[in-house]
Each structure stands twice: as structure tokens, then as C-alpha cells.
Specification:
Length: 524
């Protein structure tokens, strides 16, 4: 066959689409569509060159369909061939009127005909009317189906059943009475329960600490806990884990769920408060706040569980004790006098004071860090300003288009884009920090520097003066983990990693990089 003869032949490109895996086994399955399209091509004596099959639900922008995009690209890559695109049904092509004619015109502009196994396209006013009605009908069916699905799912939500895929830590099962229902997923649910309750009680000070715990216990696969910060934030905010259903998008607000909770409502509310307060513990029990400051910060040297504390009633007065309550620990219930445990802690902190000659070097480091942070803020402000200007120019351009738009629907799209970009500008304003002072003479700088100096000189004097939530922050600044305490030997200092010691080692090993006499960068 000569080349010019080959170019005169129509090459058929078959496009098949289903909306779900379920349709693969029914009358609109991919294989059934493909077979009917091949039969159509055979009748018309077309040469089937390529077949594009995909599963994609709904209407909207046809460019989001990967296989359809490949089909269009295939046409563009072969401009000398005569193509015809074959579909099995108009609903497989597009399911809204606008997309239907946009896609059809996209093909016609490239000299490509569109054919359907059960519909004849006619280039007449009557034919276009019928085609428009058919496309509108398919659009109606799609939207109506979506509405019915949403109504059914919303009814299930309001009845207390989660209607979507299983939540993290849960799985979906079929129940004879309830139908599909969420149930805790065994060990995973227990690990998550421990994490959420630990956060509420201050055992995990930060969200990243929870993520680290979940990774170490196999709940998530990964090595970087910061990767899961958004995930744990969503989990903490979700009342589902406390036994409630919330889906504001559909107007379903805080319904009692039929599923089993893994935490109490009180724990959920306490966690929300911690998120609002930046992770600090506001609701601290009285005995934890004033009487037992080391509760939850010291652990049993035998089993590793955090020590709890309580008052013990004697004949004439009460006595304060710390103790381990792990049922499997050999030290369970054996009391440690409060005065002994806290006295040992004071001695331990006093031993963590840095040497006098290191304090001047610490000031130099503080100044450098402070200056660098200010530079970073200025740099961020410049980025925010540039982004704000870009958004404002974009809004002006969109506003002009909205004023001249002939279609109300197009105008609504422009107005929505304007609102979205105004929200982005508001977000930039909330992220900006005004710096209009000499930061080296500012009250924040002086206050922060004074705190650093006092803490380096006498960390315990700072510890005893602050509230419990500040005590916990200072504790984890000084030590990387809870302190192990042995009933017979006291604090196991061989297992303690001190931040101040690490800091002192760093400074002394890098003295050639520190000029104690000033705050300017070191000379080469």
C-alpha cells in the first residue's frame, strides 16, 4: 500500500469510559463498550489504531481525564492521519452540555469526526437540537444521581453512621442490624487511643511527639514524624473518635454516632483546648499543678511507665508519694517520698548549669540566632508583599472580565475567583508580622535575653516560679525524655541525655567559631 493511500484511510480511535468498578461487570463495562465500537469500525471499514479506556466519574473539565487527554495528544502527534473517534454512548463522551460541545469542537477543529454506536450526528439545526437535548438529559441524570446519593448518605450520617471510607484506626464491616458500620481496628485503634489520651494528659507535649510515638509503634510507615503533622491534627479535631458524627459540608453537626468510640468526649474537648493553646495543657488537675510537678515527667526505671502521684492518708495527716502503677511491674504500688524524688531532681538540674565562661558565648549565639530570625522575617515579609501584589493585579484583571461577561454563569465564576483570591490576601495579612522597631533594643528582645541568662545561671530558680505547663516545656528543653528513677538508686544519670551538657560540649568544641567579645560574625 502506497503512503498516500494509507493517509486517505480513516484510522479509528476508540474511547471507552466507566464511572466505577461496578460497571465493569455490568452492561456498560469497558470490554462491552470496546466490542461494540470495534463492530462499528468494522462496518464502516475503519482501521482501529488505538483504544483508550479509563474509569472516571462525573462531568466537568474533560482535560482531567487522563486517557482522554492521551487520545487528544495522540491526534496532535499524528497530524497527517485521518482520524475518527468512536464512542459507545453520548454519556461516555461527556456528561454535561458545555463539556460535550467543547470536546466535540476540539476534535472538529483538528479535522476529526466523532461517531457513536447508538446515535447519528447530523450537521443540521434539528440534529444539533436533538444532540443538545441528549447531552442535557445525560447532565440531568448525572446531577440527579449525585443528589440522590448525597441524600441517602446524608440520611445515614444524621442517623449516626459514617457514610464514607473508614476513618484512620477504624474499619468498615457489614452488620446484620446496622448495615455498614465503623468498628475500631484492633491493635491500631488501641495505639491511636493511647496517643490521643497521652496528648490530653500532657504525656505528649507536641503533635510531633504523638507522630513519633505512632511511627515507633507501627501505626504509620515512615521515618519522619513531621510528615504526619496534618494527619494527626485532623484526627485530634475529629469528634468521630469520641463517638460523634460531624460533616459540616452537608449540615450534619455533632450527631451521636452508632459506632464505638476510642476516647471520651472529655478527652476530645481537652485535646481541642490544647490545639487552641498551641499544645500547652490548660486543664491540669490540682494535684498535678501544685503538689506533684514531676508527675508524668519521671518514669519507672524498671518498666519505663510514667510515675503517677497521690496523697496517702495517715492517722493524723496526709503524706505525698510518687509510685508506679503498672500491673506487671515489680515496683507497682511501692511508694517514693515526694521530698526525696523532688530533692534529687533539684540536684540534677543544679548539676546541669553551664559554666560561667560558657554563658558569654551563649549570649553571642543568642544574638546571632535572634538576628537571623529577624532577617528571616524580613525575607518572608518581602515574599508576602510580592505575592499580595500579584493577587491584587490578578483580581483587577478578573474584575474587568466579570464586568464585560455576557453570561451570568461566567460572571459567577469570575466573582468566585475574586472571593477566593481575596481570602488568600486576608491569609497573607494574618501571616505578616510588623517589625517597626530596633530589634536589639525592643522589649521582646530584652525579655527573651534576660530569660536566657537567668535560665543558664540558675535553671531551678526559673523552674519553681513558672506554671505547670511552662515547667513541662522547660523540662523537655533540659532533657530529651522522661527521667528514669529507681527506688533504691534514685535518678539513673547514666541514662539521661542533658540538653545543657550537649550545648556546653558544642560550644567548647567550636570555640574558634565564637568571638566572645562581640556579636559580629567571626573573622576568617
Amino acid at each position: 500500500m502506497r503512503k498516500d493511500q494509507e493517509n486517505s484511510i480513516f484510522h479509528a480511535l476508540i474511547y471507552c469510559r466507566v464511572s466505577s468498578d461496578k460497571q465493569k461487570n455490568e452492561g456498560h463495562g469497558l470490554e462491552a463498550q470496546e466490542q461494540r465500537c470495534k463492530e462499528h469500525a468494522q462496518k464502516k471499514k475503519y482501521k482501529v489504531e488505538a483504544i483508550f479506556k479509563e474509569s472516571f466519574s462525573g462531568g466537568g473539565d474533560y482535560k482531567k481525564r487522563p486517557e482522554l487527554t492521551k487520545l487528544l495528544q495522540y491526534i496532535d502527534d499524528n497530524p497527517l492521519k485521518h482520524f475518527v473517534v468512536i464512542i459507545d454512548d453520548l454519556s461516555r463522551f461527556a456528561r454535561d452540555v458545555v463539556s460535550h460541545f467543547q470536546l466535540k469542537n476540539h476534535l472538529l477543529s483538528r479535522g476529526v469526526n466523532l461517531e457513536c454506536t447508538n446515535f447519528n450526528f447530523e450537521d443540521t439545526p434539528e440534529g444539533e437540537l436533538i444532540e443538545t437535548v441528549m447531552a442535557a438529559q445525560h447532565q440531568y441524570h448525572r446531577k440527579n444521581n449525585k443528589r440522590q446519593v448525597v441524600q441517602k448518605m446524608k440520611a445515614r450520617l444524621e442517623a449516626g453512621y459514617w457514610s464514607f471510607t473508614a476513618k484512620s484506626g477504624y474499619k468498615m464491616i457489614k452488620d446484620r442490624i446496622h448495615g455498614k458500620i465503623s468498628v475500631p481496628d484492633g491493635k491500631r485503634a488501641k495505639i491511636l487511643k493511647r496517643a490521643l489520651e497521652g496528648f490530653s494528659m500532657g504525656e505528649f507535649q507536641r503533635k510531633i511527639d504523638i507522630c513519633d510515638y505512632l511511627i515507633k509503634n507501627g501505626y504509620w510507615n515512615g521515618k519522619r514524624p513531621e510528615k504526619f503533622i496534618d494527619n494527626i491534627t485532623d484526627i485530634i479535631k475529629d469528634p468521630f473518635y469520641a463517638g460523634y458524627i460531624l460533616y459540616s459540608k452537608w449540615g450534619v453537626d455533632f450527631k451521636k454516632g452508632k459506632h464505638k468510640s476510642i476516647i471520651s468526649l472529655e478527652t476530645y474537648k481537652r485535646n481541642l483546648e490544647r490545639l487552641r493553646d498551641g499544645g500547652s495543657v490548660k486543664r491540669i488537675r490540682k494535684d498535678l499543678n501544685s503538689d506533684f510537678p514531676l508527675r508524668g515527667l519521671v518514669k519507672c526505671a524498671k518498666c519505663g511507665d510514667p510515675l503517677t502521684a497521690a496523697w496517702s492518708k495517715g492517722r493524723t495527716k496526709r503524706y505525698p508519694y510518687y509510685f508506679c502503677q503498672n500491673k506487671n511491674c515489680e515496683l507497682r504500688g511501692k511508694s517514693i517520698k515526694k521530698i526525696e524524688l523532688e530533692k534529687g531532681f533539684k540536684e540534677l538540674i543544679d548539676n546541669n548549669q553551664v559554666k560561667n565562661e560558657i554563658q558569654e558565648a551563649a549570649k553571642v549565639i543568642f544574638n546571632r540566632v535572634w538576628s537571623q530570625e529577624i532577617k528571616n522575617i524580613y525575607k518572608e515579609q518581602a515574599i508576602y508583599k510580592t505575592r499580595k501584589n500579584e493577587l491584587e493585579r490578578y483580581i483587577e484583571d478578573i474584575a474587568e472580565k466579570a464586568l464585560t461577561a455576557s453570561s451570568p454563569n461566567v460572571r459567577k465564576v469570575y466573582e468566585r475567583k475574586i472571593e477566593e483570591n481575596l481570602s488568600k490576601i486576608d491569609g497573607i495579612h494574618s501571616s505578616c508580622v510588623n517589625i517597626d522597631f530596633d530589634h536589639k533594643e525592643s522589649p521582646p528582645y530584652r525579655t527573651a535575653l534576660d530569660k536566657v541568662n537567668l535560665f543558664l545561671k540558675s535553671p531551678y530558680s526559673v523552674w519553681v516560679k513558672v506554671e505547670q505547663e511552662e515547667k513541662q516545656r522547660l523540662f523537655f528543653f533540659l532533657f530529651e525524655e522522661r527521667l528514669p528513677y529507681d527506688l533504691n538508686y534514685g535518678y539513673r544519670t547514666d541514662k539521661i541525655v542533658s540538653t545543657t551538657t550537649v550545648f556546653e560540649d558544642f560550644v567548647t568544641s567550636n570555640t574558634h567559631n565564637v568571638e566572645v567579645g562581640g556579636i559580629e560574625p567571626p573573622c576568617k
